[in-house]
Design a protein that fits this description.
The protein has a two-stranded antiparallel sheet. By secondary structure, the chain is mainly α. Strand 1 (342-346) and strand 2 (349-353) form a beta hairpin. The chain has 19 helices and 2 strands.
């Protein structure tokens, strides 16, 4: 689903850097727990402030101030000389950023946080680099994909790129950087055709190492490479949803035959990522051309059938079950153009995953935000815009008493999604010459 770049939601204070050193009064686990508990009781009510007594308002303000003090302490930990303390601070921020919306707080401190993340990416261990890349991705999502997120992405993109293509870097760090480049480009620079092309090419250079050689033989995977190729392919496929028709045609011709060969990969997770990417590319091809046909579709379907019924005993039972389930869906779509719809509930609302494109986008956010994706679907304007949910709901007794039916919500979501997709497709076509 194409993304339009968000407008500037807040000016922030670019010249202000608010990392003030404080004393460590609690363990890192206690600090994280305290921050999360504060926000679990306060952030849901931030956009739905009930009228109360003056005393209650004072208590709310006090709790908010205490929470911000704890978050400032987490940020201060990122500047510590101890790698253990920095890593603990990063983990604390990762948990809070993924589970709560902190736009106002982070807008004023984005430069401080970005500087700290840059330092961790440049000088930290592989583990620290991996978490720092994830925290940076969450920061871009928190900032809503506007000018602030774009500025941060341009600042850290060269470092993320350097780690991703560094064969001596930690595999975990490279995987995290691949995800960060895909997601941050998706939310922050979707309108910049040149940046999109560069990101696509960079990610391609990573996962194309898994493609067969001229004789059609797949390379022997190096330790950790299937996981890296999987992350790069998934990040690439997320960005493919932004491409104009002219670019998509080129990508389909280049990658579909090679990806089909990769279905024979020895790694189950990479096979599954390849299968889902094939389904996504075919769906996009059918959107461009009603009579789109996959080259050598009979061979592809035979391969998918084999994977959908794989009973090989040397594979783990859970791996076999997961693979069969996914490839049954892929095969069903290739043969019948039918997608198995999924309903995602959060609060009193639902999102309907009714296409491979929509699944790829949802899975990308879920992977980075984990269980916190439900909270962001409820309150984060960026995600609500992407999934056609409108402004965050203001819930009161009257709204709860007049909830629309599931079918009506489904129709509304589908209509909004399709209308927005068509509108953004027009915007992409205007950029086609750049691509």
């Amino acid at each position: 689903m194409p993304r339009s770049k968000k407008g500037k939601r807040g000016s922030g204070k670019p010249g202000v850097r608010n990392g003030v050193k404080g004393e460590m009064g609690a363990s890192d686990d206690e600090l994280t727990s305290d921050v999360l508990s504060h926000y679990s009781s306060n952030s849901e009510t931030a956009s739905v402030m009930d009228e109360g007594t003056g005393g209650e308002q004072v208590d709310e303000q006090t709790a908010q101030e205490q929470t911000e003090d704890k978050l400032k302490q987490c940020i201060d930990n990122l500047m510590d000389k101890s790698s253990k303390t920095r890593l603990a601070g990063l983990e604390s921020l990762r948990q809070v950023f993924s589970s709560r919306l902190l736009y106002d707080f982070l807008t004023e401190r984005r430069l401080t946080v970005s500087d700290c993340l840059e330092r961790s990416l440049k000088k930290g261990s592989g583990e620290e680099q991996a978490v720092a890349a994830t925290v940076f991705t969450l920061l871009c999502i928190q900032l809503g994909g506007g000018d602030e997120a774009e500025e941060g992405f341009k600042m850290l993109r060269p470092i993320l790129t350097a780690i991703l293509i560094d064969n001596s870097a930690s595999i975990a760090a490279r995987q995290s950087c691949a995800r960060a480049l895909g997601m941050c480009c998706y939310v922050s620079t979707a309108e910049e055709g040149e940046d999109l092309v560069k990101s696509l090419a960079l990610l391609e250079s990573v996962f194309m190492a898994s493609y067969p050689n001229r004789e059609g033989v797949l390379p022997t995977p190096k330790p950790g490479s299937p996981g890296l190729h999987c992350s790069a392919l998934q990040a690439w496929s997320l960005l493919v949803t932004l491409c104009p028709a002219s670019r998509l045609t080129v990508l389909l011709d280049l990658h579909l035959p090679k990806l089909q060969a990769c279905l024979q990969s020895s790694d189950v997770n990479y096979r599954i990522a390849v299968g889902e990417t094939i389904a996504l590319l075919v769906e996009l091809g059918r959107d461009i051309e009603e009579n789109f046909e996959v080259e050598d579709s009979d061979s592809l379907c035979e391969c998918l059938k084999s994977l959908a019924t794989d009973g090989n005993k040397h594979r783990a039972k859970n791996d076999r079950r997961k693979q069969r389930s996914i490839f049954r869906e892929v095969l069903h779509y290739i043969e019948n153009e039918d997608f198995t719809e999924e309903r995602i509930r959060f609060g009193v609302e639902s999102v309907y995953i009714d296409s491979w494109m929509r699944r790829r986008i949802y899975d990308a956010f879920k992977e980075i935000q984990e269980s916190g994706v439900s909270h962001h679907l409820q309150f984060n304007p960026l995600l609500r815009d992407i999934f056609g949910l409108g402004p965050p709901l203001i819930l009161d007794a009257a709204v709860k008493a007049n909830k629309i039916s599931r079918f009506e919500k489904h129709l509304f979501n589908s209509a909004a999604f399709k209308a927005r997709t068509k509108q953004r497709a027009k915007v992409r076509d205007k950029r086609a010459d750049v691509m």
